[in-house]
Amino acid sequence: MGHILVEIGKRIAESRRSAGFTQEELANRLGVTPQALSKWEKGASSPDLEMLTSLCDILEVSADYLVGKKRKTIVENGNLIQQDEIWKHLWDGYQPLELVFGSDVMPVFMEKDFREEIVRIRIELAKEGILMPLVRVMDHPMLNPKEVMILAYQNVLYTEEFQHIDGGTLDYLMDALRNTVRQHYAEILNIDIIKDLVENLKGIYPALIDGIVPQKLSFGLILDVTRGVLKRGNGMIYFPKVLELLEHEVRENEQATIAGRIEAVAKQLEREDNFYVAMGRRRGEK
Q: Is 284 part of any domain?
């Protein structure tokens, strides 16, 4: 165990120096004492999981690198830091959700802890059955100075160019992020999110999941049908019912197409006595 801590410490120190931080500077960023950081680097102790995550974010390295997990060699010079940087850039390029902005918008994200605001949005959306993926927030040199975009797999879901930037801009952008995720969740949703949602449901409705997913319902099939249901205007709050109806549909009609399965599941959700269908009809009557 001591040898492992020493190796982790060496990688923390090496990454810190590569990033151009002194021990005191990095400790301040992490909210720990320089003495605590020094102990990590010497292998006398180790950061907890939360602090390890912060180290990875600040030093822009992966947890795999810091804990010494080996990856396939992809650099000719044997430089592990450069190799990890390549893996990180590849990982960043696959992010399902990004909030990017021009240079004039950057101070908005420096004045207030936007991460706490994003977590608040994540909690609000969870009440609607939506699991929002991690959001990559960054300035982008190709955008105009006052321009903002929200992207999913590099596709633009939202764009706006501000005339003025003030103290209310961050709150405005957080509202835009929440509404964009809610309105375009079918484009953000991926198999990993589906898998996480299923794992969460397993603790609540084990009979719905055990022996069914992925044995009878693949994650890919669930993703396709859930996307189709969302595009018809239904919400993620119906996800457990989607699984139940989809399992029945697969059992009763093995030869149906994806489009047919989406139609069959959606029709069951969109019953006349459904609360939201009734509310929509009421608004239409007015």
A: no
Which pTM does this prediction carry? Answer: 0.70
Evaluate whether residue 216 is within a structural domain. Answer: yes
Cβ neighbours around 267 below 10 Å, total: 11
Please identify which residue in the block is written with the tokens 């720990």.
32
Are 48 and 13 in contact by the 8 Å Cβ rule? The answer is no
Contact 226, 190 (CB under 8 A): no
H or E stretch at 277: helix 275-285
- The DSSP string of 48-109 is -HHHHHHHHHHHT--HHHHTT-------SS--HHHHHHHHHHHHHHT-S-EEEE-GGGHHHH
User: What is the CATH number for 123?
Assistant: 3.40.30.60
The answer to whether 111 and 62 are in contact (CB under 8 A) is no
Domain co-membership, 125 together with 156: yes
Residue whose C-alpha is closest to residue 226's, from 192, 254, 257, 185: 185
pLDDT digits (tens, 9 = 90+) for 46-77: 888 778 878 887 887 777 778 776 666 767 78
Q: Which domain holds residue 226?
A: 191-279
C-alpha torsion sign, points 111, 113, 118, 123: negative
Q: What is the pLDDT of residues 119-160, one digit of tens each?
A: 999 999 999 999 998 898 989 999 999 999 999 988 999 999
* C-beta separation of 148 from 100 below 8 A: yes
Distance between CA atoms of residues 137 and 115, nearest Å? 9
Taking the C-alpha atoms of residue 57 and residue 51, their distance in angstroms, rounded to an integer, is 10
Look at strands 147-152 and 98-101 and give their pairing: antiparallel
The dihedral sign for the CA sequence 257, 262, 263, 265 = positive
